């Protein structure tokens, strides 16, 4: 159920409107929902598992290659109450729910949703950039730390992005994209996977350095098997350029390779 309207570009929420674009009341327990749909998990250790996806709008970062542009660079949403979200999830025959974004953990209300899903026996995956650590029942924290190669510039930004936005976000994104304290908290508190979006071998030194730092501060082991390399690309054409070299890098370094099944199957179609 794609919906459309503005949400604050800094990810903190703004005017709430209904799906028709007229002003509406924001529910006390509501979340700005960009999409809510049933599909296959396309990435990570649960790739191929039928799941309900709850995509919130708003993000505290701006990756230039973001594959959910309308949750970050141009965030759109309609507010749904917790009751409405749960009813939509329960209308699908799935045991797994993926809370994604944007960055879903910028919203405090995400905790209440995760608690309600836990009470109902769902397996929950949270897709997060690793900059926010909340106390919530999460079965799998799918953590995707953002590398330097994700930082936008006026020359490296989505086609529809405003140049001033790219300039404004470049400094903020670079400053905020790695938070070791939050990363350590997430890997200590939850079953986790570290999922890096990789373009080519130039990304590997930063990944290896970050793993050294994170292993030094975290109180739990981080195995190479917990590290997944995922090819950068939101279209089949782009994945055709990156997947083989990323697979080769995974074998070279002893990490796992994860596909992007949803892109392979449905290209860049929404609700996949």
TrEMBL record:
- This chain's protein is named 7-carboxy-7-deazaguanine synthase
Q: Where is this region: Disordered?
A: 1-32, 142-168
- What does the record note about the cofactor? Binds 1 S-adenosyl-L-methionine per subunit.
Under the heading Pfam families, the entry gives: Radical_SAM
For this chain, the family text in UniProt reads: Belongs to the radical SAM superfamily. 7-carboxy-7-deazaguanine synthase family.
Radical SAM core domain residues are: 46-268
Binding locations of substrate: 40-42, 55, 100
Alphabetical list of InterPro entries matching this protein = 7-CO-7-deazaguanine_synth-like, Aldolase_TIM, rSAM, rSAM_sf
Query: Which amino acid positions bind S-adenosyl-L-methionine, per UniProt?
Result: 65-67, 102, 144-146
**Pathway annotation:** Purine metabolism; 7-cyano-7-deazaguanine biosynthesis
Which reaction(s) does the protein catalyse, per the Swiss-Prot or TrEMBL entry?
Answer: 6-carboxy-5,6,7,8-tetrahydropterin + H(+) = 7-carboxy-7-carbaguanine + NH4(+)
Q: Which cofactor does it need?
A: S-adenosyl-L-methionine; [4Fe-4S] cluster; Mg(2+)
Subunit-level organization: Homodimer.
The cross-references to PROSITE patterns, in alphabetical order and at most eight, read: RADICAL_SAM (PS51918)
The residue ranges flagged as biased composition, category Basic and acidic residues, are: 1-18
């Amino acid at each position: 159920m794609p919906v459309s309207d503005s949400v604050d570009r800094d990810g903190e929420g703004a005017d709430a409107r209904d799906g028709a674009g007229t002003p509406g009341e924001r529910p006390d327990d509501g979340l700005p929902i960009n999409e809510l749909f049933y599909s296959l998990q396309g990435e990570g250790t649960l790739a191929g598992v039928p799941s309900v996806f709850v995509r919130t709008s708003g993000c505290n970062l701006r990756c230039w290659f973001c594959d959910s542009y309308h949750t970050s660079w141009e965030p759109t949403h309609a507010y749904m109450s917790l009751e409405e979200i749960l009813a939509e999830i329960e209308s699908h025959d799935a045991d797994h729910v993926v809370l994604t974004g944007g960055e879903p953990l910028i919203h405090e209300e995400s905790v209440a949703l995760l608690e309600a899903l836990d009470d109902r026996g769902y397996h929950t995956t949270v897709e997060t950039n690793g900059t926010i650590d909340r106390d919530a029942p999460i079965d799998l924290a799918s953590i995707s730390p953002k590398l330097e190669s994700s930082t936008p510039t006026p020359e490296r930004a989505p086609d529809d992005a405003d140049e001033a936005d790219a300039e404004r976000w470049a400094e903020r994104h670079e400053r905020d994209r790695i938070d070791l304290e939050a990363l350590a908290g997430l890997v200590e508190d939850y079953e986790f996977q570290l999922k890096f979006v990789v373009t080519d071998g130039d990304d590997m030194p930063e990944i290896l350095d970050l793993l050294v730092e994170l292993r030094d501060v975290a109180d739990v082991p981080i195995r190479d098997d917990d590290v997944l390399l995922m090819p950068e690309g939101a279209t089949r054409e782009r994945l055709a350029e990156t997947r083989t070299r990323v697979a080769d890098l995974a074998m070279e370094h002893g990490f796992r390779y994860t596909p992007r099944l949803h892109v392979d199957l449905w290209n860049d179609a929404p609700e996949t």
